[in-house]
Amino acid sequence: MERKKSIRKRIFQLREGVPQSEIQESSREIMHQITGLSLWQKASCIYAYMDFNKEVMTRELIETAWTQGKRVAVPRVQGKEMHFYFITEFNQCEPGVFGIAEPKEGLPEADCEDALIIVPGVAFDCDRHRIGYGGGYYDRYLSVHKNHPTAAAAFSWQVLENIPCEPTDIRPDCLITEQNIYK
Fold this sequence. Notes:
This protein is an alpha/beta fold. It has helices at residues 2-17, 20-35, 38-42, 59-67, 137-144, and strands at 45-47, 71-78, 81-87, 93-95, 101-103, 115-119, 123-125, 130-131, 150-153, 159-160, 174-176, 181-182.
């Protein structure tokens, strides 16, 4: 756990120094990589996170999904659980837990059988091991929803040589950076 905390701290410090223009440019390249995946092509629904604090930006990805006729769901945290809810426009979200945009109350809960889940993370390694933010929300969600393919989005500077992992950590099916696709 201490090593994970140390890695999170190091990546957060790196993130602070990255210019917003680089975040935007790299995010566009990652979006281009994701939308070219066969997993994307096959999915009628996209479950995407709402980016926050210099994460890989997802708004263009979400807009692309809508343009392509895909349904989009984003997560809302409720206690220790996370659930995805369909949105059709960004104004259906408001600041939620941790200040991250979440769907407002009353929207339909997502239930797509063939959804592609776009997973965030703090750090990854080339074998797709993932360190999240420490709450375990995605690991718990993915342990229950095992049939959904997953693609993690990260900047190349978030990919380390190796990171610690635990039996409860769930690896995404692929990791997409602006430079590589790890499967």
